[in-house]
Amino acid sequence: MASEDVGVMSFTILLSSSSANTVTVGYSTGGGSATAGSDYTATSGTVIFTPGQTFVTVNVPIIDDGLVEPSEDFGIFLTSASGASPDNPIYAVGTITDNEPSVTIGIDQMAAEDVGSMSFTISLSSPSVNTVTVSYSTGGGTATAGSDYTATSGTAIFTPGQTFATVNVPIIDDGLVEPTEDFYVFLTSASGASPGSPIFAVGTITDNDSTPTPTPTPTPTPTPTPTPTPASTTVPNLELDRTNWTATSNWTSSGDPNDTINPITTDQWKARNMTP
Questions:
Q1: pLDDT tens digits along 223-243
Q2: Can you say whether residue 137 is alpha, beta or left, with left for phi > 0 and alpha for psi between -120 and 50 degrees?
Q3: Are 249 and 240 in contact (CB under 8 A)?
Q4: Distance (Å, whole) CA 221 – CA 144
Q5: C-alpha distances in angstroms, 51 versus 20, 141, 217?
Q6: What average pLDDT does this structure show over 8-15?
Q7: Per-residue pLDDT averaged across 151-172, rounded?
Q8: What is the pLDDT of residues 115-147, one digit of tens each?
Q9: 149: which of 55, 109, 113, 190 lies 20 to 30 Å off by Cα?
Q10: Gap between the Cα atoms of 30 and 8, Å rounded
Q11: What is the CATH topology of the domain spanning 102-206?
């Protein structure tokens, strides 16, 4: 058993004991789930044991096909012998294990909606000697493509020896007050690598908008109660046109009963045709 990048797989043909004569043994490969020409190189021939020699090694070239596939096998058979008799086993099995890496996508991401873009890392479990391509796409979740993030899909290319690639998903700052939302990035196919785990990652978008505080309605200023206009004071005009007579004036004042009535002064009298 060997990985497909081993180069060659070696088998040993044995004699149960040394011989004084030359021994020849024919062999050939075939059968099994592996395919000659794409998984290994078909091999056949004759090995020669010189007198006293008890083992000979046969090498079968193994082909690294760059395909993701299960373990495969082939047989190598002893087809004939001269100077020795066949004995069990007369064949051996060569098992080829796949050497292609597995592909996974990195850990979940979380960022505010004003981050610009969210980055996800696609990784290979080990470097490959061949080019590996991995397809991806976004979808699902509570976020909406086109308003919360930009739908993204494509193919990441790993050159020989490269083990990771970054995928960027643009995030949209929509200016709305909303709960946290999420979307997925899925690995949809791979060439040159087998799917690992996980094959999807979650992008979580947190809101950066706050609920506006309402402006309080101002309390109306009460209309002041008008100050009543005080009742006017009427000063009666008295005229005296007779001497040595007593003048009497009867008059009435209306208004606030708390108002003060000032007595009539001498200056307020007007005398006409009066003599002392």
A1: 777 776 665 555 555 455 555
A2: beta
A3: no
A4: 49
A5: 5, 76, 114
A6: 97
A7: 97
A8: 999 999 999 999 988 899 999 999 999 999 999
A9: 190
A10: 16
A11: Immunoglobulin-like (2.60.40)
DSSP secondary structure letter of residue 126? S
Q: pTM for the complete prediction?
A: 0.57
Residue type, 23: V
Q: How far is CA 204 from CA 122, 138, 142, 143, 217, in A?
A: 18, 13, 9, 9, 39
pLDDT of res. 47: 98
Q: Is 159 left (phi over 0), alpha (psi -120 to 50) or beta?
A: beta
Alpha carbon distance 166, 175 (integer Å): 28
Output the pLDDT for position 271.
Answer: 46
Q: Are strands 102-105 and 194-195 parallel, antiparallel or unpaired?
A: parallel
| Lookup: tokens for 23 | 């021994």
Residue 184 exposed, middle or buried by CB count within 10 Å (0-12, 13-18, 19+): middle
Q: What is the DSSP letter of 227?
A: P
**Which residues on adjacent β-strands are paired with residue 205?**
111, 181
Domain regions of the chain by residue span:
2-97, 102-206
Strand order in the sheet with 200-206: 109-112, 200-206, 181-191, 132-139, 153-158
Contact 180, 204 (CB under 8 A): yes
DSSP state, residue 268: G
Domains 2-97 and 102-206 share a fold: yes
